[in-house]
Amino acid sequence: MFRVYDGTWGYDEHNPGFGDARFSPFDATDSGARVPTMYLARTPAAALLETVFHQVHQRSARNVYERDLVNKLMAHVRLPSDARLGDLRDAELARHRLARDQTVATPAEHYPCTRRLAVGAHGQRMRAGRLQGLIWHSRQAELAGSAKTAVVVIFADHYPSLRGAWVRSAPGSSNLFEGPGRLLVDELADQLDATVQPMA
Question: How large is the average pLDDT for residues 98-114?
Fold first, then answer.
């Protein structure tokens, strides 16, 4: 899977609880501790849509900012082991009569609401063990008119892994500010009719 991450951390280190994302940051209900997370996607485009392009949606000004690409990298990684995931993919949402725009396709101003789903999933106790994250279909389909693509968030405290357990595949990590990684950003921006605003 593909991961966009801040170069402050290694490609296999979880975000300790910074940022403003759909299902993070949040605190564990039992301990009150901040839960480290890691977002992953099946394709580079989906990884970018859930991170760099997360504020681009049907009703917004389609802008992303070059300053947000500084120190951002993308890595192709393999999970060390299977993960128990709460299913928020389209078929499961339909079964529960939930719309995508209520859950996994909301604009950023609704993230405080969608993070409650992560809090609830993280706190669930099941016979098979604790949920280790969530899986859903990326906004790629409705924004870019392409096939449904799986996206995952992993809860680090429920999915422990040692440094180096995540195998990084070729081409390693790509810088999103320049070079081949930046080409991916620019290509997706063109596809979405979005503008990458240059640094002042």
Answer: 88
Of 24-38, 92-106, 119-133, the range with the highest mean pLDDT is 24-38
Model confidence, pTM = 0.89
Residue 76 — pLDDT band, cuts 50, 70, 90?
A: very high
Question: Hey, what are 190's tokens?
Answer: 């063109």
Q: Which residues contact 96 (CB under 8 A, 6 or more apart)?
A: none
Kindly state the tokens that stand for 76.
Answer: 């192709």
The alpha carbon of residue 15 and the mean position of all alpha carbons in its chain are separated, in whole angstroms, by 11
Report whether the peptide linkage leading into residue 171 is cis, meaning its omega lies within 30 degrees of zero.
yes
Give Cβ neighbours of residue 40 (< 8 Å, ≥ 6 apart): 1, 2, 3, 47, 77, 79, 151, 152, 153, 154
Specify the DSSP class assigned to residue 199: P
What is the rounded CA–CA span in Å between residue 5 and residue 41? 12
Nearest to 154 by CA among 101, 92, 81, 89: 81
